Amino acid sequence: MGFGGPGHGKLKFDDDEAKPDISKALLLRIVKYFLPYWKQTLLVMIVLCISAVLGLLPPILIQHIIDRALPDKNLQLLVLLVLASLGTTVVSGLLGVVQNYLNSFISQNIVHDMKNQMYRHLQGMPLQFFSGVKQGEVITRMTSDIAGIQGVFNSTIVNFASNLFILTTTAVTLFIMNWKLALLGIVVVPLFIMPTRKMGNVRWKLAKETQEKISEQNQIIQETLSLSGYMLMKLFTKEDTELTNFRTVNAQATRLQIRESMAGRWFMLVLTTFTSIGPMLIYLYGGYLFIQGELTVGAIITFVALLGRLYGPVMQMTNLYVDVNRSVALFERIFDYFDMDPLIVDSPLALPSSAEGQDIVFENVNFAYQPDKPALQGISFTAAAGSLTALVGPSGAGKTTITSLIPRLYELDSGVIRIGGKDIREFTLHSLRSQIGLVTQDTYLFNGTIKENLLYASAGATEAEMIAACEAAYIHDFIMKLPEGYSTVVGNRGIKLSGGEKQRISIARVLLKNPPVIIMDEATSSLDTVSEFYIQQAMHQLLLGKTSIVIAHRLSTIMAADTILVVQDGAIVESGQHDSLLADNGMYRDLYNKQFQEKASAT
Ligand SMILES: Nc1ncnc2c1ncn2[C@@H]1O[C@H](COP(=O)(O)OP(=O)(O)OP(=O)(O)O)[C@@H](O)[C@H]1O
């Protein structure tokens, strides 16, 4: 199965209204997760079986109290029977504890295994996946969906086994005691099986609708109360719209939840009446048999008590298919993710290779994010080893796309990219990416200290190396002025730092990594002269002696470039050096006049 991605119709969360097809293959796949814990599962089954048998004892002991100990006025027997009843209860309780432990052990371990598998799998997903997937969906999948799996074991499997054992042991006992009475008690069972099934269907539908509303609600929260979403909402003064949205969805969710909890209350009333018909019949016919001298009082009481043990599991088991459907749907949602191919993986022939001092060559590269909408067409150029190649062009021309293809964040459709004559697909992904330093416009810093952010690039770097990198990136002095220096926490995504500072930290981070290839997207935001100066100095240090490809937004960069590539509509339309391109009177000249000249006067 291929990577479907959103829009390819592979993911099913939106139409999971439909009940899953429970195929043999799917069940086998689910069972696989339980296999490592088969011993514990077997133990749970044994415990459940013993508990079911033990549960029969108290009603039977009561029969003996009523029919033997009391009429015989036998105090010793009475005490013995009461103690036995007490003992059974205590042992049942202890078994319950053991079973609880085993349940948690099995279900939590399965959740643990699945989370690890999912995390590993998601790490391997291509960038397309993350840009296409709805906000918060990955987290939902990782947390609530997988966490739901533990409920599957507890509520579905254990419940089913427990009910089955209770049902069979009770039914057998009833038939042994008196088959005619047993038949009478069982005759009413279909009366409540049918409506229970119907009700189960209604509840299943309501539960689905509620679940959808709640995830819609979560999505609004995640989109509007995340850092960037919040800023968007504030800047576009959309608070009222979002509040109305939220209130509407919240009200719908509340209504559904109330309906869900009320569904079946009336029905339960009818059901209770039906379930009390059984005991009535037993009292009637059992009473008749008592009058005839064929049955004891104790037997009648025991019979009615056991009948309760029979009806409970029957009702629960008629709803079982709802639980099974829900559980299988949960597994399916998770498997949908597992089934997406990571797409970009090491080819079998890939070897760790060096990019040090090598040319980067694009040969007739074509690429499209979406079929039939080419983003790059016939891109060919050489970024000579140790040289600076500047990409310029209007917004949306394809500059970022070109740079994304080098570390294989996306896979090209045709053509080839070579480093040192070698197709980049022959590099292992690890060796390829570890030799490329990427400085993006939107610098990503995680919420930790400056030091932690810097060392993310090379965990083994010494304090002196870190400081040297920061000095080269012209950020050391700034960091030292902060109250906590390198231990300053940068805030969510580095919000506490200015754009220029963030980019310099990100330059320091790449300097620390010291890769032979640098890809940089210069910040477009205009900086004050001082920051501008620092950034330029930092860049100069960064690019020194490296093979660099820079999406240029500054005059100084294009002036310093060995080659300028002018990109338009996904193609390279001009290339050369500043002076000759300017003399050509073409696209570059236009662009220069529009984009760079005013900045030249500003700086
Ligand atoms: N993840 C994506 N999925 C689909 N289309 C995309 C994606 N990223 C970019 N595009 C499209 O590909 C084209 C090239 O985009 P790209 O980001 O490479 O342009 P750019 O020259 O870097 O622009 P800018 O200077 O504004 O960053 C654009 O039309 C853009 O809409």
How is the secondary structure organized here?
Elements: H1 24-34, H2 38-69, H3 75-123, H4 127-132, H5 137-177, H6 179-187, H7 189-224, H8 227-235, H9 239-262, H10 265-291, H11 297-318, H12 320-338, E1 360-370, E2 373-383, E3 388-392, H13 399-405, E4 414-419, E5 422-423, H14 429-434, E6 436-439, H15 450-455, H16 463-472, H17 476-481, H18 499-513, E7 517-521, H19 529-543, E8 547-551, H20 555-560, E9 563-568, E10 571-576, H21 578-584, H22 587-602
Parallel strand pairs: 3-8, 3-9, 6-7, 7-8
Antiparallel strand pairs: 1-2, 1-4, 4-5, 9-10
Residues 131, 369, 375, 393, 395-401 line the site of adenosine-5'-triphosphate.
GO molecular function, one term: ABC-type oligopeptide transporter activity
Subcellular location: Cell membrane
Protein name: ABC transporter
